[in-house]
């Protein structure tokens, strides 16, 4: 398979929830999207924009009403091959507590492996490796209810890593954590991405979005904006209309730019703001000939 | 000077005292809150924040030390605990979980009904509380609670506590899990309650942008103790303190720190984007 | 002074006391089997000496597993009123049916015979034995081992289409969520108390009123539990769980000589209990 081949292809997907016999609420309207190997994709939008529903289509938890989703060319409608789909695209959910099934950490990591019929000796190797990858080896024999939210999410990630997926989908996985727990999870994600894992994250936190390769903005079940974080955050007005924030770094850059034309408004990270300041100060010093 | 509306002195609490699992959650904590203030309590998970706020309306009684709220002494076993709980409205994390009536109006009316108020006054209070949180009484009172969005549910829960007409509003992570739109709106509402209705507000938060926007004064908790107290400007201006206690900095402050490290003279206490932009303009326009 | 709300910290279901004794290190399948055999023997044995012997064995078990006896006694304490009520009822009404032995006392329908006295005393002893034995089992075996052991022991039932894996999984999940729900309940009680609710202050005989007072807790707890269950199902499905599909197992137990000896010892004890004639 070449790198141009998407891992996930979403083609003209529409989806609606049934309220009752004759009432349906459309949640996704004709959404198309490709996720490429090694990519870090962020999906943003306010609650009810359809972003969470979209993410649940990526590994066949939901199947489209019309349109198709393919994971490595397997249609997610194909129930016979749903194991393959779900072991290739893993998913971490919002509530740390609601995705742990076992009373001991290592048993929980084993859960998915037991489901796909991995032999016991191989399980041990995989559990070792995935607990190591999320830095939770020391907790392997502990009951999960004594762990912090961030630690529980790391266990959830380990449970998915053990299945050796190509892609991990995080559905607001950091929204219930404190800033410390969030940083913890982000550093795990960053490391996995560096090692080649494809990441799709659904989030409200704009600082997480800034790290992505590509951003999709959703509104009323459609993708209304997409591009690199820099391209997307340049549309500050449009984002405000959609009730979304931009990172403070972007806001500060825009504010400075208003007063001082040459200062670049298209900055998304704190470090970039600092660099831009440096550049201007040096230019000024040169201009004044000192 | 009038006496503070909330006065906590030398409060300590040990969970499971006398067992091998004993855990000191509060260690000689003292805080004073003046009438009409808006106070933030920040700190790492497990630093004792939620144990502290549960003492403020008598859900927990002091093991040692003193808690006096609006003249009511929480450590006095004979204190009118129901009066205390009406005066101090405590809103838990994810309060939308606590809704249980079918209709929005009924749920908000639960507290006032329990107080034994006449129907007309209950109705008046529900209407008042709903308007305060930005829910239209006529439009929303007969809506089923389960059909609301997350942000709306949280407003209903907040209204349910406001309907008690508390003097002090205590909030645990008021915006956790909300999307930016609902978060900003709720913050506006809380700010207005403090500034226009004169409610004393004490809130616990992990979100430093939120603390920066709302709080007049901040208490930093660590290991069951008050590690530091001061204005947001003072707290955020002290990077070693923030790092020591695993407290995230607002992004604007982080940028200013990086600039200061490179030798620029900036005020790192400027935590609002507008202020940070002004600091930067000062540097480059010279 | 503590508070009326501290539920979660007092829950001791599945309280495990790791002293790393021989009993702790036994294969849970064998431990569970031995336990079931002894419980059956206790249920059948109705002699004084047989039960005294069983009682002695149970107390000995605490010593072998290095668990202080007061853990067992604290399990008996809450059962005392129940034992007394049962004993009284048996004493009053059972004599009519079991008219064997000497009759000590008779008045109207009340007959107290040596047989009914024996029944009363033996039942009380059985109670204590069962509590002691269960305490040793749960204190020396983690809940994880217990469910694993049970799943393996019930394994043969799969042949008659009994869903053993699903059953074990349900129990594991139930145990897993006990602390979570205890915390949830504590939080809910505190949240409702904060807006004026009061629980348990009404007279106990006004059951309807008291039940009504609990609704603000029960309804939200149900909602939260349902929401959690829904989340959990999604999370399990996302990790390839299919009800009824065959699964492999991570934990494997290998029985050693110690495990076989333990089983044999428990059978011998049971046989002795049942053969003692007095």
Automatic annotation (TrEMBL), chain A:
<feature type="domain" description="ABC transporter">
    <location>
        <begin position="8"/>
        <end position="245"/>
    </location>
</feature>
<dbReference type="GO" id="GO:0043190">
    <property type="term" value="C:ATP-binding cassette (ABC) transporter complex"/>
</dbReference>
<comment type="similarity">
    <text>Belongs to the ABC transporter superfamily.</text>
</comment>
<dbReference type="Pfam" id="PF00005">
    <property type="entry name" value="ABC_tran"/>
</dbReference>
<dbReference type="GO" id="GO:0015087">
    <property type="term" value="F:cobalt ion transmembrane transporter activity"/>
</dbReference>
<keyword id="KW-1278">Translocase</keyword>
<keyword id="KW-0067">ATP-binding</keyword>
<dbReference type="GO" id="GO:0042626">
    <property type="term" value="F:ATPase-coupled transmembrane transporter activity"/>
</dbReference>
<dbReference type="InterPro" id="IPR050095">
    <property type="entry name" value="ECF_ABC_transporter_ATP-bd"/>
</dbReference>
<keyword id="KW-0472">Membrane</keyword>
<dbReference type="GO" id="GO:0016887">
    <property type="term" value="F:ATP hydrolysis activity"/>
</dbReference>
<protein>
    <submittedName>
        <fullName>Energy-coupling factor transporter ATPase</fullName>
    </submittedName>
</protein>
<keyword id="KW-0813">Transport</keyword>
<keyword id="KW-0547">Nucleotide-binding</keyword>
<dbReference type="InterPro" id="IPR027417">
    <property type="entry name" value="P-loop_NTPase"/>
</dbReference>
UniProtKB/TrEMBL annotation, chain B:
<dbReference type="InterPro" id="IPR003439">
    <property type="entry name" value="ABC_transporter-like_ATP-bd"/>
</dbReference>
<comment type="similarity">
    <text>Belongs to the ABC transporter superfamily. Energy-coupling factor EcfA family.</text>
</comment>
<dbReference type="GO" id="GO:0015087">
    <property type="term" value="F:cobalt ion transmembrane transporter activity"/>
</dbReference>
<dbReference type="InterPro" id="IPR030946">
    <property type="entry name" value="EcfA2"/>
</dbReference>
<comment type="function">
    <text>ATP-binding (A) component of a common energy-coupling factor (ECF) ABC-transporter complex.</text>
</comment>
<dbReference type="GO" id="GO:0042626">
    <property type="term" value="F:ATPase-coupled transmembrane transporter activity"/>
</dbReference>
<keyword id="KW-1278">Translocase</keyword>
<feature type="domain" description="ABC transporter">
    <location>
        <begin position="6"/>
        <end position="248"/>
    </location>
</feature>
<keyword id="KW-0547">Nucleotide-binding</keyword>
<dbReference type="GO" id="GO:0005524">
    <property type="term" value="F:ATP binding"/>
</dbReference>
<dbReference type="GO" id="GO:0043190">
    <property type="term" value="C:ATP-binding cassette (ABC) transporter complex"/>
</dbReference>
<dbReference type="Pfam" id="PF00005">
    <property type="entry name" value="ABC_tran"/>
</dbReference>
<dbReference type="InterPro" id="IPR017871">
    <property type="entry name" value="ABC_transporter-like_CS"/>
</dbReference>
<keyword id="KW-0813">Transport</keyword>
<keyword id="KW-0472">Membrane</keyword>
From TrEMBL, chain C:
<protein>
    <submittedName>
        <fullName>Energy-coupling factor transporter transmembrane protein EcfT</fullName>
    </submittedName>
</protein>
<keyword id="KW-1003">Cell membrane</keyword>
<keyword id="KW-1133">Transmembrane helix</keyword>
<feature type="transmembrane region" description="Helical">
    <location>
        <begin position="260"/>
        <end position="277"/>
    </location>
</feature>
<dbReference type="InterPro" id="IPR051611">
    <property type="entry name" value="ECF_transporter_component"/>
</dbReference>
<dbReference type="InterPro" id="IPR003339">
    <property type="entry name" value="ABC/ECF_trnsptr_transmembrane"/>
</dbReference>
<keyword id="KW-0472">Membrane</keyword>
<dbReference type="GO" id="GO:0005886">
    <property type="term" value="C:plasma membrane"/>
</dbReference>
<feature type="transmembrane region" description="Helical">
    <location>
        <begin position="79"/>
        <end position="98"/>
    </location>
</feature>
<keyword id="KW-0812">Transmembrane</keyword>
<feature type="transmembrane region" description="Helical">
    <location>
        <begin position="119"/>
        <end position="142"/>
    </location>
</feature>
<dbReference type="Pfam" id="PF02361">
    <property type="entry name" value="CbiQ"/>
</dbReference>
<feature type="transmembrane region" description="Helical">
    <location>
        <begin position="32"/>
        <end position="64"/>
    </location>
</feature>
<feature type="transmembrane region" description="Helical">
    <location>
        <begin position="162"/>
        <end position="182"/>
    </location>
</feature>
